[in-house]
Amino acid sequence: MLSCPNCKSKDLGKIGVNQYYCWSCFIELSVNKGKILTHQVEEDGTLSSLDDLFSDDERSIIM
Ligand SMILES: [Zn+2]
Questions:
Q1: CA–centroid distance, residue 20 to ligand 1 (Å)
Q2: Which of 11, 36, 39, 55 is the most core-located residue (most Cβ within 10 A)?
Q3: Does residue 56 form part of some domain?
Q4: How many Å lie between the centroid of ligand 1 and the Cα of residue 26?
């Protein structure tokens, strides 16, 4: 089960192929090769990566 690495919420909406949106902390998640990539949507609509905030373990998907 996929959960948000930032807030641990499982309240994720699917927005595309391997792309999810966290309704709890409003970040975008995408899944690539078993890793969760995190992005914050800025006010001007650009995406900035939040991956530096999380360890590899936190961004791994546990099946
Ligand atoms: Zn979240």
A1: 10
A2: 36
A3: no
A4: 6
What is this structure's pTM? 0.82
List pLDDT tens digits, range 36-53.
999 998 999 998 999 999
Query: What is the Cα–Cα distance from 41 to 46, expressed in whole angstroms?
Result: 6
Kindly give the distance from the C-alpha atom of residue 3 to the centroid of ligand 1, in angstroms, as a whole number.
Answer: 8
Structural domain harbouring 8? 1-47
> From ligand 1's centre to the CA of 35, what distance in Å?
15
Residue 35 in any domain: the answer is: yes
Q: Work out the burial of residue 54: count CB atoms within 10 Å of its CB; fewer than 13 is exposed, 13-18 middle, 19 or more buried.
A: middle
Tell me whether residue 8 is in a domain. Answer: yes
pLDDT higher than threshold 90 for residue 61:
no
